[in-house]
Amino acid sequence: PAWLQSLMAETFFGGCGAHLNLRKNEKNIFCLICCLSFCPHCLPSHHPSHPLLQVRRYVYQDVIRLDDLEKLIDCSYIQPYTINSAKVIFLNERAQRSSCKGSSAAAAAANNCFTCDRILQDPFNFCSLSCKVDHMVYHGEDLSSILYRFDGSDFSISQFEGLRMDVSDDGQVTPDSILEDPLDQYGCSDYAKTDHSGSFNGSGITRRKSKNKSGGYGIPGIVISLSSRRKGAPQRSPLS
């Protein structure tokens, strides 16, 4: 269908040409009838009866809430992710570092996306909506078997009243967002982990600074004390 083809090909979160001087003018709303994207400021001038879909963004990638997308298309075997306590589906294939593709025996034996080879959790076969659609088209499968006849009231313009943008000013989701990525277990995650109690290094491992009772800082096997030195009695030169 035209809406599915346009949804996967559309470039979201670009600035709206009609509202360049306004904040939050990113085009993140998609009309399933017009097959076009526009920003929240365009809502009053859009046809009120057209079904609309909101696209969100995580690390420069477009995502859609699973609750919304599964009303339009069968999302089975597409791995969902949790962001801001909501399940989302990536719209398109994500770029991954070449070092993560078959770089280890563990990764090679893992469950991979049928289309792009990204490591997935069982029992999922696709990492994004486009990967599932491309796989079906490549094998000559009928897409109508996974499409649903949706109710336009589920995507009415009223859902955007008082729209609260999920993205911050830099186009990213808020800091409390969580991306559950199975690549972490193979050391190939796109995003290294850290915590608030240690310092960050490239391998995702944190090193803690341990302070001993004497005021020094300890490194395994080495303790440098800052307060254990004592001053001796002052030495005075003899009077001449």
Explain this structure.
The chain is of the alpha+beta class. It has a domain at 2-95 and 108-163. It has four helices and twelve strands, in the order H-E-E-E-E-E-H-E-E-H-E-E-H-E-E-E. The strands form four sheets. The protein has a four-stranded antiparallel β-sheet. A three-stranded antiparallel β-sheet has the order 2-1-3, with no helix packed on it. Strand 11 (217-219) and strand 12 (222-224) form a beta hairpin. The model is unreliable at 164-228 (pLDDT under 50).
H/E topology pattern: HEEEEEHEEHEEHEEE
Unreliable segments of 5+ consecutive residues: 164-228
| Basic shape | flat
Helix content: 10-25%
Distance between the termini: 106 Å
Mean pLDDT: 73
What is the radius of gyration computed over CA atoms, rounded to a whole number of angstroms? 27 Å
Major sheet size, sense and barrel closure: 4 strands, antiparallel
- Beta-strand content: 15-25%
Number of helices: 4
